[in-house]
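Hey,

Quick one before I head out. I ran the complex with adenosine-5'-triphosphate overnight. Inputs first:
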Amino acid sequence: MTEPTDEGARPASADRALGGDPPGSQEGQAPTGAPLLELRNVDKNFGPVQALQGINLIIPEGQVTALAGDNGAGKSVLIKTVSGIWSPDGGAVFWRGQRVHIRTPKDAAALGITTVYQDLALCDNLDIVQNMFLGHEDLHLGMLNEIEMELTARRTLESLAMTTARQIRQPVASLSGGQRQSVAVAKAVMANSKLVILDEPTAALGVTQTAMVLSLVKKLTSQGVTVLMISHNLNDIFQVADHLAIVHLGHLVASGPASNFNRQTAVDYMTTGRSNREAAGSPALAAS
Ligand SMILES: Nc1ncnc2c1ncn2[C@@H]1O[C@H](COP(=O)(O)OP(=O)(O)OP(=O)(O)O)[C@@H](O)[C@H]1O
Ligand SMILES: [Mg+2]
């Protein structure tokens, strides 16, 4: 199924620059049918390397979108472009139908985009509560409001059904990979994120921990959070993804409802950028 690529269809008055606007000023309701995030014709080059070429990608609100592709396909560059690490060299980004310029991670955070990178950026020597509040500690009369922070952290973890950590005050160094991933995601939830981007969240995890993280991903969408999950793992993808986008050598080669793909077509697109097979009963999947 081909995603819409109506570049230029929106009026110029929809263009908005981030930076001067106060946080939250972008939060108006989406025009009917506008996706939470949309990339139109986005390019990113590193010298002669064309890492992203004419990417047209739609992230539907309230769903899990899996972003798949072989090594070097452009997945990390794509999410870094959305997260404000890189600026696109061409094309445009729309948030709920309005054009935005995400130039820094702060701009991304102001929109409600939180990215959980593979190395997670947690501090091993701090406990779960301290990690979850790192950078936005709750202060009361100039003192850390430990009780309130602990309660909020506990409530957030419980709301995500993340109950496997024995003690909320245990150092993050003592947690398993899956528990660490869950703390990082819970931190994103506490930041009131609207879009949580996860870079290979299960790559280093065993079977049980993978199941825990995938159920957490589903739980996020049940709380209204939209998820963009990079993954190589077809089991994970078909277990949780509502929508699937596949990149190959910097091009978006297919995207659509996950039910339009099967393992074989997904592997075809990931490895060769095309597929002559169609999933049973599904329309052709080639993207622009
Ligand atoms: N900072 C950079 N400078 C130069 N080239 C880069 C840079 N970052 C990425 N690239 C190039 O862009 C292309 C896409 O890289 P990217 O990291 O997005 O791949 P990926 O799909 O995330 O792969 P993997 O599955 O291995 O993580 C690669 O050719 C890579 O070498
Ligand atoms: Mg990568």
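The mean pLDDT is 81.

Talk tomorrow,
K.
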